[in-house]
Design goal:
CATH class of the largest domain in chain A: Alpha Beta
Shape of chain A: globular
Helix content of chain A: 25-40%
Pfam family, one (chains A, B): FAD_binding_4
InterPro entries (chains A, B): FAD-bd_oxidored_4_C, FAD-bd_PCMH, FAD-bd_PCMH-like_sf, FAD-bd_PCMH_sub2, FAD-linked_Oxase-like_C, FAD-linked_OxidoTrans_Type4, Oxid_FAD_bind_N, Vanillyl_alc_oxidase_C-sub2
Protein name (chains A, B): FAD-binding protein
Oligomer: homodimer
Mean pLDDT of chain A: 96
Largest interface: A-B, 88 and 89 residues
CATH architecture of the largest domain in chain A: 3-Layer(aba) Sandwich
Cofactor (chains A, B): FAD
Keywords (chains A, B): FAD, Flavoprotein, Oxidoreductase
Chain lengths: ~450, ~450
Amino acid sequence: MSDLLERLRTGLPAEALITDPDVTASYAHDMASFCEAGTPAVVVLPRTVEQVQHVMRTATELRVPVVPQGARTGLSGAANASDGCIVLSLVRMDRILEISPVDRIAVVEPGVINAVLSRAVNEHGLYYPPDPSSWETCTIGGNIGTASGGLCCVKYGVTAEYVLGLDVVLADGRLLTTGRRTAKGVAGYDLTRLFVGSEGSLGIVVQAVLALKPQPPQQLVLAAEFPSAAAACDAVCRIMERGHTPSLLELMDRTTVRAVNALASMGLPETTEALLLCAFDTPDPAADLAAVGALCTAAGATEVVPADNPAESELLLQARRMSLTALEAVKSATMIDDVCVPRSRLGEMLAGTAAIAERYDLTIGVCSHAGDGNTHPVVCFDHTDPDESRRARESFDAIMALGLELGGTITGEHGVGVLKKEWLARELGETGIELQRGIKAAFDPLGLLNPGKLF
Amino acid sequence: MSDLLERLRTGLPAEALITDPDVTASYAHDMASFCEAGTPAVVVLPRTVEQVQHVMRTATELRVPVVPQGARTGLSGAANASDGCIVLSLVRMDRILEISPVDRIAVVEPGVINAVLSRAVNEHGLYYPPDPSSWETCTIGGNIGTASGGLCCVKYGVTAEYVLGLDVVLADGRLLTTGRRTAKGVAGYDLTRLFVGSEGSLGIVVQAVLALKPQPPQQLVLAAEFPSAAAACDAVCRIMERGHTPSLLELMDRTTVRAVNALASMGLPETTEALLLCAFDTPDPAADLAAVGALCTAAGATEVVPADNPAESELLLQARRMSLTALEAVKSATMIDDVCVPRSRLGEMLAGTAAIAERYDLTIGVCSHAGDGNTHPVVCFDHTDPDESRRARESFDAIMALGLELGGTITGEHGVGVLKKEWLARELGETGIELQRGIKAAFDPLGLLNPGKLF
């Protein structure tokens, strides 16, 4: 231990090392606080690539595990410390190195906050779409590690689709440059994509080339009330089947709507069973919303309210964005699931989740990126009640089992971390896991990078 | 050899095996006929997944290399046979298994022809964008293996972005299902993406889930004449910088324009130095073309001609699509390069290519996916002239060196195959190649799948 600190100090300034146990303890876990987490030996906050290389060389020499971290807003424990590890926090490597409107790329360090980048590129008329709910605090490095999604995915896709190239410090301290600055490129296996969503288990991302889009017109939102989740899902299918491309297509169930009203008096319609939000950022969003409104009515909507202006639209989005926080206030604890199914099966997924809530006698609020078939069932429970806690855990698993049954995945955007390790094995099967381990061994033969995550 | 055939016959119908050397010889190489190619021991044409598994099990037992093939329209020799190999042609597995307008996916076997799929999904109001020049003959499996691009990439991206899930027969015959049918998913390392562009070296794709887009309005094309390549590249930068999203942005140099006229009397303007084609498939393409036309004029265009109707547009596209064929007719042989640079460096790339043509005293016609910075310099030479052949080869390499110098890649969409193996190592560096080999070893420890390709 003292050997570790001594060796780290040879290549790092004093301010880059935190050893005070009271402080290092605060780096022990991400937002999945209920997942197991160990006690770090030291927290390192490098500012340069060379410093990261020094940390990894030291870790390799001394066989010390390394847990990379961004802003620790993850929801699966992927950033949780293991006992005696080096926590490698990249938050101080937070420079935007380049924004090119002609090449439509940004080059950034991993600690840049998502919202900071988004605003910076906006000033150049550009748009960085990935927008996880935590976008005001989460880092690009964390987004890359967990392959984050967000509200915009139904039109713009996920983080993976915006990562063109990476500089990565490997487990042994070597620096790898992979991918490109170009719009296209097929030179060899796509290592860049392999790092995206690898939860820090293959290398430490120290720089990223990100693709940007031209900034679209401001989106306009419509809210539609439905008498049942089934009717709302029918509307979602009709909208997508007709070839519409909304910039957002979100569904809040009654539990979520009530929770949001309780938290912030948003005045959402409490009597509705399902509230669908749809937006367009097209040249004529009002026309697109009118067409979608008609489809909603045909599917049984009792009320269709298009926003008249961007301010009204923003209010509706705020309601949606605070859903998880609002549901967290329902009981003393929550477990947030993240099952994604083919959108044609969304109705079955929601009906099945309601049945699970009833079977386990629990409150489960569901907000969904409906256009993507990605549901976030939030199991609300009293963590001081052992029986309720057990039922919560069982319902959480039942929801994932249902997702797989419907041809879906156990995680649409939150990742595996420690939370869903067992379930990853179920989804991928023996052969899949064996190949994943083979890749891990090729990159990190000593198993030092974020051990105990994924599989 | 007779042992190999005997074993293959135990799991394959007679019609699935070709052993006549005159016929198997025709499977020896793809369109890169000037690359080295061996003599296959046998050509196998399976119709089922089980048959593919039988082939791979047999190959593993007997340690026989396997070269997977689609329609052999590749341009880098990735489908070229090695001596004594099994050529595994997937062209008879050509069923479209499912098209879902709600989920916006198609499920297909690898032998489906790109154009057949494109037309089939059109009938459902859907669009499968990847459109390599060979789209009327090339297969989806080949497109996946080589990560094909096309004219649409500037707006719609490349094949990789449309592959959601794969069924893959591994080297030892095991069947792996990877990826998803869902819009999103982050369960483990992205093995699906790893197979895309792997040129058959990691496994045999036997089924694919492809993402589809809603069918856009028919595109309208504009042609602009420029007095220099530099001015045309300036226009390209202005168009992209202003936030336009053309569905096509192509550049033909004078050599290409003349070659096309010579081949098909297309009436293209022969006096121009650079002909830029730009298209939009937006709701109001004429308005977008007018804006782009103004930018072209500002950049020095001497003539800007928007097409009045889809028929005129189609004619301009036909001219572009026949560019390679036309350049092939200039001399007895051609070598087609595929360097992609950041679009801000496209002008330097074209100027440098012209200088290379002069230095080596060669005709090099260049057509470019200009919006992507992806150039196809076509070196035209007399293959019976040893000195000219040597200069052609040297100029081909000089073009790749220039691309790397400008921050680009040696291959934007044609792949590595045998043609660019040495150059892949230069682009990726020692560490990159070592990791690529590590991945290869994890999937194919005996090195039986398409040996001698990539690295």
